[in-house]
Amino acid sequence: MINETMYGLGDEPSVIRELFAYGLARKAEIGAENVYDYSIGNPSVPAPALVKETLLEMLETDPVALHAYSPSAGLPDVREAIAASIRERYGVPATAGHVYMTAGAAAAIAISIAAVSHRDDEVVVVSPYFPEYRTWIEAAGCTVVEVPACQPSFQPDVEALAAVIGPKTSAVIINSPNNPVGAVYTRESLEALAAMLREKEVELDRPLYLISDEPYREITYGAEVPYVPSIYGRTIVCYSYSKALSLPGERIGYVYVSDLADDGDAVSVAIAGAGRALGYVCAPVMLQRVAARCVNEPSDVAAYAENRRILTEGLSALGYEYVEPDGAFYLWVKALEDDANAFSERAKQFELLIVPSDSFGVGGWVRLSYCIARDTIERSMPAFAALKASYEG
Amino acid sequence: MINETMYGLGDEPSVIRELFAYGLARKAEIGAENVYDYSIGNPSVPAPALVKETLLEMLETDPVALHAYSPSAGLPDVREAIAASIRERYGVPATAGHVYMTAGAAAAIAISIAAVSHRDDEVVVVSPYFPEYRTWIEAAGCTVVEVPACQPSFQPDVEALAAVIGPKTSAVIINSPNNPVGAVYTRESLEALAAMLREKEVELDRPLYLISDEPYREITYGAEVPYVPSIYGRTIVCYSYSKALSLPGERIGYVYVSDLADDGDAVSVAIAGAGRALGYVCAPVMLQRVAARCVNEPSDVAAYAENRRILTEGLSALGYEYVEPDGAFYLWVKALEDDANAFSERAKQFELLIVPSDSFGVGGWVRLSYCIARDTIERSMPAFAALKASYEG
């Protein structure tokens, strides 16, 4: 009588996690240098020196105070440091009371969905999309409604979104810079999306929340990343330091409920309640302090930009098709056969670990995480050549 | 259209958390030394030196590997270290595959309930009980069934439990050493409970899970703490290092699904699925390594034993009635009026922060956390005297 939904989620881990686990085993078997693991978004850039410095300083303070529970929403000075950074960077009137510290963006998104949805509501996503959105939406008892992005820009298709938003819609999730395609939503796109949502709110006489998943906000290659709360009031930002500070395993991030939402205070209360319901007592406290101290540390985007150049030039020379990424550290590559799963399986024969697109909501593509060692990218090119040749034999 | 249940949980934080927050504000107002804060279980004993030593060593290693994602269930060597410790200490055949690392016991319990329950199931608790059990049980769509403990032993009332277990029961939660009363369940009690559950499983033709919440396992004053998985097969241990290693804010613990359960492998899979559904990507990785390294570190029980002696002797001399605690670091004291909330409110006038019993499922008592500075306990005695005198005026 175990819960079969939970059993199913445990028995079929996300395709990304499954490939990541396969990679760990395969590396143990044939040597890490012989596996080209493009599976997971584990940053290859080390955390900024200030992270270590902050942790070392902290460890010299009173351990009782250091490791004590924080209030559920986070340490007050940490929340204020983050609010201040949002005010300074984006010119919006952010207050500490609207910042809720979380164990990463995953927790932030799961909590946000639970806070603004009811069972049997619909949550809209733009495909291709991060596969775990489905897990968290369904865990809240809601239904996923997929709306394909525009082609070939991968901007949100506002008209198509408008067509699916109805009385059961509670929220739309967007993710820019985007995982998996690397698109950065333009101001124009976001303004059109915001205008449509405002119209729909009037038409449906209900609030519509925009959950903005932003772990890659700092990782862009020149494109402007407009701040969503300054464009649409009822925005809930889900942020993570996993990528910006290269701390994915530490689980630290936050929810920021826009102060420009007329119900922002109430939403903040519901966020706190949802965190409590999901078993989050407080975000890890040492990491809360690291986040506050490093709140304005720049990300080492140059390293990813160079990886991007090497990978795209290499694949381009081999004749692969892909979407030119404006942000994040993923390359969305056209599979060499219609069945992306079969393509990903075949790639394994060449020790290439690339994620098939099906769980992102579309067929025929693969995702390559290029936040990996540069050397791995360079050495993988013969494998990509051999993979391609295998389709031409 | 925010979720009113989540709003309610956020708007009325747990009574413990509310009192804790009041205490923080009051200390800022009149000075920390003037507030006698018995509200929360924030250990006053510093973390063992090995915690800092392990963190310092870790910080000298490659930051990319150090802070990377771990597999969802935890680092393999960490899971193995914990399984080995369980085997050695308790003589049960624990395997790493049944250990799932979590962000503390709260996450462990929320995940366990979700893994073995369905909506509209009933989960049984022994009152008085930790109030958040209700939050997590209801978050899984289930109903709380409260069964009072025996009086005055505060052992589980097996007959009364048998009377409420029916076709909708998925699990029973026990907590020994117990928060809030400090009772330690005897082998005899646990064997009677196990025998009853096994009978009910046959009668009802369904598995019944025993969720054993054990954050205080190491904190006892001489009483034997039998290892529940060695007594009942279908046991799910929810453990936390918050108290044993004085790391409550860091959020590290685990679920251990007994290897003696015939469906233990399947339950472990469902645990992993439930963790995923609730947004837990992996437990904080630095802390996973700390847990493994400190897995056999002794807890500084002597400090709590001395606090217990001073507090119980002091209150006894003043004529307060309380339950003699065998474990954990809570004292369950009879309120001086029927309404525990009114009593707790009146105690505030004397700067005494003590938690009323109602949210633990019973009226007329208060809980005192004595994991606080010894000095605070000593200095609080005149306040307890004045509180008592105020009822005698």
Outline the fold blueprint:
The structure is a homodimer of 393-residue chains.
Chain A (H helix, E strand, L loop, with lengths): L3 H8 L3 H16 L5 E2 L11 H11 L3 H4 L9 H15 L8 E4 L1 H13 L5 E6 L4 H8 L3 E6 L9 H7 L4 E7 L11 H18 L4 E5 L21 E6 H4 L8 E5 L6 H14 L7 H9 L7 H17 L4 E2 L6 E5 L5 H10 L2 E2 L1 E2 L8 E5 L4 H19 L1
Parallel strand pairs in A: 1-11, 3-4, 3-5, 5-6, 6-7
Antiparallel strand pairs in A: 2-8, 7-8, 9-10, 10-13, 12-13
Helix pairs in contact in A: 3-12, 5-12, 6-7, 6-11, 8-9, 13-15
Could you give a short account of the major beta sheet of chain A? 7 strands, mixed
Count all strands of chain A and give the number.
Answer: 13
Mean pLDDT of chain A: 96
Query: Which stretches of chain A are poorly predicted, pLDDT < 50 over at least 5 residues?
Result: none
In helices, the fraction of residues of chain A equals 40-55%
Tell me the radius of gyration of chain A.
21 Å
Looking at the structure, the CATH topology of the largest domain in chain A is Aspartate Aminotransferase, domain 2
Count of DSSP helices of chain A? 15
Structural class of chain A, please?
alpha/beta
The strands making up the biggest β-sheet of chain A line up spatially as 2-8-7-6-5-3-4
The tally of structural domains of chain A comes to 2
User: So what's the oligomer here?
Assistant: homodimer
Largest interface: A-B, 87 and 87 residues
- The general outline of chain A is globular
Separation of the first and last Cα atoms of chain A = 51 Å
Q: How much strand of chain A?
A: 5-15%
- Name the CATH superfamily classification of the largest domain in chain A: Type I PLP-dependent aspartate aminotransferase-like (Major domain)
CATH architecture of the largest domain in chain A: 3-Layer(aba) Sandwich
Q: Class of the largest domain in chain A in CATH?
A: Alpha Beta
